Amino acid sequence: MNNLFSSVFDTVEKGVPTNVRVLLNDVYVITGAENISTIFRNEAYSFPSDVSPITSLRNIFALPKPALKVYIADTSGIKREPAPWSDVKPHRRIRLLTFKATASALSGTGLDQINQRFTLNLADLIHKTGCTPEWTELPDLCQFVRTPVFQAAVNSMFGPHLLSLSPNLAHDFWEMDQRVQQLLICFPSWMIPEASKARQRCLEAMKKWHTFAIEHRDDNKGREESSYEPLQGSVYIQQMMKHFSAMEEMTLDAKASNSLGMLFAMIGSSMPAINWSLLEIFQSPTLLARVRSEVATTILPPLTTTSPSTPEFDLSRLLKLPLLQSIYTEILRLHVAVFHIRSVRHSDFHLGDWLLREGSKILISSRPAHLDPSAFNTGTAEAPHPIHEFWADRFLVPASSTPGNQELKFSLAGCNGNWIPYGGGQRICPGRHFAKAEIFLGIAFFVTVFDIELQVPKGWKAEEDGGRLGMGSLNIKGEVPIRVRRRRSGRESSVIEGNQEERGAEAK
Ligand code: HEM
């Protein structure tokens, strides 16, 4: 599969829409920043985003057929006014309803709330990792990092009951995630028993949780669906459950598939991005020192925090740190490989000098766009930074032209249509702001609280696992052994030392 797609893109001339046959379908492959931006700008009606979500819901998340038909039947689009050719009833406009629910949960006050919950959850779970100031050897960096991050994210979106009812969900989810391409291609279950069984266990966990929420719901309580509540979690879940209750096709199985889809979207791509960032940072002592000192400027004074020995960060300042922004942008550029598949609808479409025929499919891949050396800073002749290699400073530019001023600022100028990890236009990923917070906080907590040393042979280079190709961030291939210890520096050491002094005083 991975080779199939790389050979497709190898044959395409940049900027020229090229018609190729992919898995028995005629597809226009679209490349070039201008073409990509034009497609994203015209998504509302010319390129409704039907192919990718419907395929994912059916193949990956096993949405039952009657529920799938509700999605297929909804041709109304995501604008407030339904598309002129659509007669779908307002309560069955599943795309608009989903769009609104994600917007409520992942922008404005919904975003502030989920960011805050994630921060507090992660601080608490980092505090409980059991890591001491003594070095401990662990088999895998990614496993160490994802245990608290997964739980913090899941509890922020779904509330605490999902994981307390199904403590193995994390294990089952990552088993499924690792094999997600097998599910997407829709091999029969007997050919992919591990992937199918892992998905089944995840769906069972979702059903158990939905059943629990229904059984324990207090219908007498005036329910607002405007803020988080522990039973159903975020506004997204609450609003979707309300909409689903008006559609008989949305059975318990359908709700489980939908929730599993949200879980996959929420953590599947953010997690590898945190892992790659930490891998790069902990591999370079110079970069680690720069990141630590930048992040330290956003640590809140002890009085405002809830966890005694774990720092908390001023998130709005953290998100604006130039070096951290550059690392984040570089990691998504290098390791997100997403396909946007669309169909040309309702009329032929003129894309520059080219005509895309109505009914045909189009494919945009982030990878050629992200690896286009003409679109990104590749250093100088004396200090080159090839496009395939990680360079933490790729998106840093002088903050001012005043001679002698060394200050750097973050800039994505000139990358429009080339830096597209989240897609673009109307269907741009609605979770991108939360994803950014997850990644920044993940980096900030781990570099501040832990010393991590990779236990890999000299000259070792991490490779990508192609298992999620086309669906978001790619994972690090294999395990990365580490040794880890809790740091005794800065805020942490002052808290620990303070506690020791107190204990000493008590003993006397
Ligand atoms: C680095 C992390 C992430 C990446 C790279 C990413 C990327 C994407 C992309 C490329 C799409 C498809 C856009 C399209 O159809 O063209 C998408 C859709 C979506 N994402 Fe994300 N995403 C990330 C994190 C998140 C998070 C954290 C959430 C939720 C909390 C989320 C929720 C969603 C949802 C609900 C959709 C479907 C939207 C729709 O069908 O209209 N994503 N994401």
TrEMBL record:
Task: Specify one Pfam family.
Answer: p450
Q: Where is this region: Disordered?
A: 485-508
Q: Which residues participate in heme binding? A: 429
User: SUPFAM superfamilies from the entry?
Assistant: Cytochrome P450
**A GO molecular function for this record?**
steroid hydroxylase activity
Keywords, alphabetical: Heme, Iron, Metal-binding
Cofactor needs: heme
What's the domain of life for this entry? Eukaryota
User: Is Magnesium one of the keywords UniProt gives this record?
Assistant: no
**What family does the entry list?**
Belongs to the cytochrome P450 family.
Protein's name according to its UniProt entry: Cytochrome P450
Protein species of origin:
Heterodermia speciosa
